[in-house]
Amino acid sequence: MKQQDLGLNLSKRRTRKAVFLDEMNLVVPWSELLALIAPHAPRAKTGRPPFELETMLRIHFVQQWFGLSDLAMEEALFETALYREFVGLSSVERIPDRVSILRFRHLLEEHHLAERILATVNATLTDKGLMLRQGTVVDATLIAAPSSTKNSTGTRDPEMHQTKKGNQWHFGMKAHIGVDADSGLVHTVVGTAANVNDVTQASKLVHGEETDVFADAGYRGVEKRKEIQAQHPDVNWHIAMMPGKRRAMDKGTPMGAILEKLEQTKASIRAKVEHPFRVIKRQFGYVKVKYRGLAKNTANLMTLFALSNLWMARRRLLQGLQG
To answer: Which residues contact 50 (CB under 8 A, 6 or more apart)?
Structure first.
């Protein structure tokens, strides 16, 4: 049967996934990150040589971008030429298996390198003038964890907890972040159980160089906390008015109109903190924790937010490369 010519040149067609990987390949500071990890990489004395460190780092990032487990990543490398090309594997004769992928992640966790990856990425963005550090927006989001006990241990993750939001109960953890108020890029990440109150983590989300911090009504009273007064006494906190109080306010009076305008301005600044949450949940598909324990999942979040910063800043970074 004669094949129908659909007018498609498959040799030149670039899919959205291919374009995404092309862009991220250009904006990730590979040399700086490899220099960070290299001192901790094991050296094989016998047997087959280990895979290139850059290959393993690229595989680790592909996992984050596309929500792949260790097994799914191993299979994807066999099946998808695009992934093999991106990570630098010229053939399928020797592909990192799930154990190799797992060991590399454990290497990052053992030496607390996820936090340093975030710091390295942010240093690059700061050097390029993309993070101003004069203002911070703080917020938290819930990350679901498996609530079923139908597993090998017969128990839930003991480090995860449930909390009630509105009329619905959630089981899992919270990702608390501090975001640059100008660019919306994440500079600090803290992971806790879901039942930890947001305001208790506020002091950890302030880097100390900002003059103003913006937050929603869940952080009311934050300026009175002892750790805030001790560590950040000069910071101006701009907390949103309680929704009920705002609705009851008479906006027809001059003072009411001024206060309403102030709340709108604070809300427009706070909106920046929603952008990185959207990227990791919608762009990268991260909607549920991948591992057991807060430490591993917090490290995973730090890597995700480092990559989300690069994704959000990619157009400006690419313009700088072209210039």
So the answer is: 41, 42, 43, 44
